[in-house]
From TrEMBL:
This is ABC transporter ATP-binding protein. It comes from Microvirga splendida. The keyword Nucleotide-binding applies. Residues 4-239 form the ABC transporter domain. Keywords: ATP-binding, Nucleotide-binding, Translocase, Transport. GO terms for molecular function: ATP binding. Belongs to the ABC transporter superfamily. It comes from the Bacteria. The keyword DNA repair does not apply. It holds the Pfam family ABC_tran. InterPro entries: AAA+_ATPase (IPR003593), ABC_transporter-like_ATP-bd (IPR003439), ABC_transporter-like_CS (IPR017871), P-loop_NTPase (IPR027417). Part of the ABC transporter complex HmuTUV involved in hemin import. Responsible for energy coupling to the transport system.
Amino acid sequence: MTGLEIRALSVDLGARRALQGIDLALEPGRLTALIGPNGAGKTTLLRAIAGLAKPSAGEITLNGASVARMRASERARAIAYLPQGGGVAWPLPVESVVALGRLPHGERPDHLPAQGRAAVEAALLSVGLEGFESRPATALSGGERARMLLARALATQAPVLLADEPVAALDPRHQLIVLDGLRAQARSGATVVAILHDLNLAARFADRIVLLDQGKLEASGLPEAVVTEARLASSFGIRARVTREEGGLLVVAQGPLSDA
Ligand SMILES: Nc1ncnc2c1ncn2[C@@H]1O[C@H](COP(=O)(O)OP(=O)(O)OP(=O)(O)O)[C@@H](O)[C@H]1O
């Protein structure tokens, strides 16, 4: 089996079971959107795939090899992970921060070989940060910083890219640019998983949608099969209209359900 396979995965965080019995196959070439209400376990699932949260049960494999048993250096080349709301503490130039994404390949950010430089340039371009190369990373707006950190993850050119809310801080134009970039990364053969709270963007850009609810896999499949009015009511506790429009589904949230 190529791609990521998650079998009977459970994760405990302290006394809390954050994920329970997740079975999921994530195929290369696809952008998968991970959706679900706050606290559903989305970040925990990405962290478990990245090897940062230890499974209490079950297994995650990449192309048949256990992620837990990979050497850290091997895992860093195979799986790029963009955490939620990351920051930078030093006024490094944007280009140098993005070049840190080449470290898993043993490439020093200040002495990148041609391949590394090309990866950094492509990453900056795909998040719309060309022209920002020499700006200090600490002198960016929140959305620019979020795009820089995504570029760092993209620069690794890992076969798996995990992004935790990559468009949450972005204006509409840059949301579209970044999601186009993630989809392009998938089209080039990567397995891309992004946590998205905007259901319209998820339904429009993702090839597959995975819905988590209270640590369990509630649904997984094509956007129109997963994003339904019934599921928006049962999992998100909202009354919503879902209609099919040119270019994808249109989700209009109408109000919270009082008994959810
Ligand atoms: N360090 C921790 N110790 C104990 N429980 C935790 C810890 N971190 C998260 N949790 C709990 O685990 C559950 C899953 O959290 P997780 O961050 O994976 O949710 P999420 O779906 O990503 O949520 P959000 O949409 O709010 O980012 C939540 O109930 C959360 O309160």
